[in-house]
Amino acid sequence: MKKILLIEDDLIMRENISELIELTGYQVEVAENGMVGVEKTKTFLPDLIICDVMMPELDGYGVLYILSQKPETATIPFIFLTAKTEKEDLRKGMNLGADDYLFKPFESTELITAIESRLKKNDLLKQQYSSGSDGVHEFLNQAKKVVSLKDIKEKSYAFSFSPKEYIYKDGEHVHFVYYIEKGSVKTYRYSDDGKEYITSVYNEGQFFGFQPIFEERTYDEIAESLEATELTKISKEDFLTLVYENREVAQQFMKIISETLSSKEQDLMLMAYSSVRKRVSKKLQELLADEDEITLLRTDLAKLTGTTKESLTRTLTEFKNSKIIKTEGKKIILVDRKKLQKMDLIW
Questions:
Q1: Which of 48, 112, 151, 333 is the most buried (most CB within 10 A)?
Q2: For the domain that residue 209 is a member of, what is the CATH number?
Q3: Are 274 and 283 in contact (CB under 8 A)?
């Protein structure tokens, strides 16, 4: 049975609403003001909160703000009850993260419909999605059902890129968020003396290009495909609608991209503290995760591992002598995956 917390200071209104909700089949807990409501949320852990705006002790905006700061309560669907004379404050509540508004007086069917709608949407977006291609597409399809996108056409577009083809350049305005269906992409900048240095490498199943959208800036690096690559593009407008129009959508998306961010941090830590041998081993394991061979310029691999071309060449020679890999021109062929993994233990 779903649990609903009703926070309302008017006794008659509180009793009438709670009786209606209980008759509909929900478990109800009531609170006579905002302070009590916040405390009861911690112990009752409702599936949905219905809250009056104007109350003594702590008003509805204060309740929503406090609950939004705690991970365990931040995504509980929140419906405000308010008088029509307070309509001008609607934007304030929505900006704080309210999911819906009901203006007093309202019909019983309006309240029940609002409750059922919000609970259904919340259940849809509580699903866990993997960071792989299937998980991402399932997430986008579910998000379309939840978020109001009547005026938005298809959300994603598929594009193919040849090896070493530009995806975007520094200084360009942002139009898309990118998801890698197949292949890999590097992002890089040029130093003052004209040398290229790689900032990140993104592989199949990862998002990239979304940071400038949140920071409202142009790209500050170049993105280029390392091999034949297939990307799904999500338009900037659709991406922002997905993220900002529903808190649960935003939370699910952040869970998916957190793997990308975590991987990037791990690369930086590895580059800072590991030996050349270990860095090369880690990067080869990553690049050869689903393949037995890759084609990559030695200069690019050196940049990816944060070492010089000479040091990389010596390490690859060592790996060849140990019969871990073999090379054919630009091609690196995996011979013994277990031996390559054991190189992680050598500092």
A1: 48
A2: 2.60.120.10
A3: no
d(C-alpha 62, C-alpha 76), whole Å = 15
User: pLDDT tens digit string along 243-275?
Assistant: 655 555 555 565 555 555 545 545 544 444 456
DSSP bridge pairs for 179: 207, 232
Mean pLDDT rounded to a whole number for the chain: 78
Three-state SS letters, 207-265: EECCHHHHHCCCCCCEEEECCCEEEEEEEHHHHHHHHHCCHHHHHHHHHHHHHHHHHHH
Strand runs labelled E in the chain: 3-7, 27-31, 48-52, 78-83, 100-104, 156-161, 166-168, 176-182, 184-190, 196-203, 207-208, 222-225, 229-235, 293-295, 325-328, 331-334
263 falls within a domain = no
Cα dihedral sign for 257, 258, 261, 262?
Answer: negative
The range of the structural domain enclosing residue 249 comes to 133-257
SS3 per residue for 271-298: HHHCCHHHHHHHHHHHHCCCCCEEECCH
- Domain-ending residue, one of 91, 125, 159: 125
Q: In this structure, are residues 331 and 293 in contact, taking their beta carbons and an 8 Å threshold?
A: yes
pLDDT tens-place string over residues 169-190 = 998 988 888 888 889 999 998 8
Alpha-carbon distances, residue 48 vs 2, 77, 261 (angstroms) = 8, 5, 31
Locate 88 and state its tokens. 């001008």
In a domain, 44, yes or no: yes
Domain boundary among 204, 226, 257: 257
Distance CA 311, CA 73 (A): 51
Which of 119, 245, 135, 120 is CA-nearest to residue 179? 135
